[in-house]
Amino acid sequence: MNANAAATNPPDIDASTLRTWLGDRQEIALVDVRDGGPFARSHLLVASNLPLARLEVMAPALVPRRSVRAVLMDEDGSREGPARQAALLLTRHGYTDVHVLAGGVQAWGQAGFELFSGTNVPSKAFGEEVEHRFDTPRIEPETLRQWQQEGRPLVLVDSRPLEEYRTVSLPGAADCPGAELVLRVPELAARPDTVVVVNCAGRTRSIIGCQSLRNAGLTNPVYALKNGTMGWQLAGFDPEKGRDNLAPEPQAAGLAQAQLMAVEVAQRYGVQFIDVDRLQQMQLDTTRTTYVFDVRLPEAFAAGHRPGSLNAPGGQLVQATDTFAAVRHARLVLVDRHQVQAVMTAHWLLQMGWDEVYVLTQGLEGELHTGPARPEPLGLQDLTAPLLTPAELQDRITRGDCAVIDVGESYWWRAARVPGSFYAMRSRLSQALQAFELDRPLVFTCADGRVSRHAAQDALALCHAHVAVLAGGRAAWRAAGQPTEVCPGDHDPLLLTATDDMWYPPYARRTGLTEAMQQYLTWEVNLLEQLAREPYLQFRIGPRAAAHGDTSPA
Questions:
Q1: Is residue 451 part of a domain?
Q2: Could you give the CA distance from residue 342 to residue 348 in angstroms, rounded to a whole number?
Q3: pTM (2 decimals)?
Q4: Are 290 and 383 in contact (CB under 8 A)?
């Protein structure tokens, strides 16, 4: 991961200057390049986590305009630290306005400014503010349980992505990710006496999901389940695992109802619509960053999407905005097919303080691309390690002539890894590779085969001669029907390094689950008090008139 030493050494800025920049409402990419574990323990409020170990893959999507003002940081800003390595890497690849926070996160705290723990903090704090401002109705797990036992007419929907829903869900719940709620729920709750309950893992997506249906004018009683699946488990009730029950798309009448609801939301909240010509003008403006997000579910996106758009399912775009858009004050253009998911997502992003949010009309007409869409990683042309198909790797594993090393997110390696594969944080790869002789053949993998290609190049630079990469990573391995296995515990001999690459949710803990859930829920509730001390992030909760532009989808 060493950048070209000949690249221009990016300048430092101090904490006070950065504080001023954060308040000037000009575009800025605030990038924390530490691994996910240290980031989750302490970071600046609106920083996006782009670890140096994944920077080549993440930067083109999250920081697409290479002339944007960018500030990078690590723990202490040391001379050989990851922030300076990352700054040199970005500069080498054409980023022209890169700075490093002198003294890093430590200097920000020493200057008396706030540091936050956890992940997706702006979005989580926003959820708490929404509940406070709207007095979003909520019910206790015990009440939901009683209603279910009484056979009360009830629609229970889980507003998380299907992958999370499969991990842990509630009995009787259908999966309906956040931006899909207004599209799918009205038809499910056709009887006026049917109660709708929205849950998630904890609080934010339950609150936002419930309030979405209320903002859209659904006349049924709608509640957020207090503390979600965590609250359910803390109440002593058993969850379910491995379910695959997605709420169905509406028929014609249900779709028409959802679209009428979305039109009314757009008018009340000042959601602006633009056409393709206007989008193209925005994209030609090299002085501004314009993100184009298709907010539909991944399956719909893969079946056909606008060229140049990226998939950011609407519920997750609100829940974890910092993981999709690292440039504050950029333009956000949202795409869907029915102008329901995009409108509902836009009306929340406007309230979160994003000034320029637009819904693209007729954005799915004309030629569409299929499959996943990912910007080309930085330095792709420099990668030389050969690619293996799943069948080729399986053959080599059977022969026992290679070691497989996974450098992806450790949580998913633990859940379903290539059998016998080792785990190593890419940031500690030099340490990890000491376990192997230089002539031992190594095959690298990760979630989708992108980060592992760069890790393989690192291994070549460390003089390991026989290096290859599993094309498509674990996703391709599973799609090919190859077997997987579960990590048996924290003392697995296949762990070459610590697993401090990411924040582990409470339900992923092997011990202390109850305490972890209680701590997490307390942390969420307490965010608003801390947020009040960082005035550069301002929410604007409630309806507002459009400042300019068209608020009609027609």
A1: yes
A2: 10
A3: 0.94
A4: no
